[in-house]
Write a structure and sequence with these properties.
Blueprint (H helix, E strand, L loop, with lengths): L1 H59 L4 H16 L3 H22 L3 H5 L1 H36 L3 H8 L22
Helix pairs in contact: 1-2, 1-3, 1-5, 1-6, 2-3
Length: about 180
């Protein structure tokens, strides 16, 4: 009789622990998905700003067609990307083409004085800061999640219930280069 009661209590305790671990896994997976959604929100904001920026520059720098086309292609690549690594690559390519666009804009003093261009440039810079923060938050969240699903005893329950490791938002090695600054 006492053994039966102890067995039932042990089963209930194990059930509560397993449920707690599973619920924690669900919470962490949802945080990862939310963090990714925040990156997507900021990328969408940037993608919405770019056509206005391109049109503003186009009015002043009509012979810079290649730069404008590259920005448009890079924007399309970001919108079509899926997954953290593909999105990171496309996003980095877009950032590079935007740097080229701003370099072209520097050659046009009238464009630099245009209020619309200045506001778009400011909005884009703020959005880039938000994207950077969102990437950092996403990677922190993914790191916590991945650590949890790989730690004992959570890894057993994660393996049984199908929780997979998430990929970090990585910057490709070519982006590690420090830009050359000249005065």
């Amino acid at each position: 009789m006492v053994l039966d009661i102890l067995a039932v209590v042990a089963i209930v305790i194990i059930g509560i622990v397993v449920a707690g671990i599973y619920n924690n896994l669900i919470r962490q997976r949802n945080r990862v998905e939310n963090a990714w959604a925040q990156i997507e929100v900021q990328l969408k904001r940037r993608n919405d700003l770019i056509p206005n920026l391109v049109e503003t520059v186009k009015g002043y720098a009509q012979h810079e067609r290649t730069v404008l086309e590259n920005v448009t292609k890079a924007r399309a690549a970001v919108m079509e990307a899926s997954g953290a690594n593909e999105t990171a690559d496309a996003s980095n390519m877009l950032a590079s083409t935007l740097r080229s666009l701003f370099a072209v804009a520097e050659a046009y003093p009238q464009l630099q004085a245009n209020q619309n261009f200045m506001q778009l440039q400011k909005d884009l810079a703020e959005t880039e800061d938000r994207i950077t923060y969102s990437r950092q938050f996403y990677n922190d969240t993914v790191m916590r999640y991945n650590t949890t699903i790989q730690s004992v005893p959570t890894n057993i329950i994660a393996g049984i219930t199908g929780f997979d490791k998430k990929e970090l938002f990585r910057i490709p090695p070519e982006e590690y280069n420090v830009p050359e600054v000249r005065f």
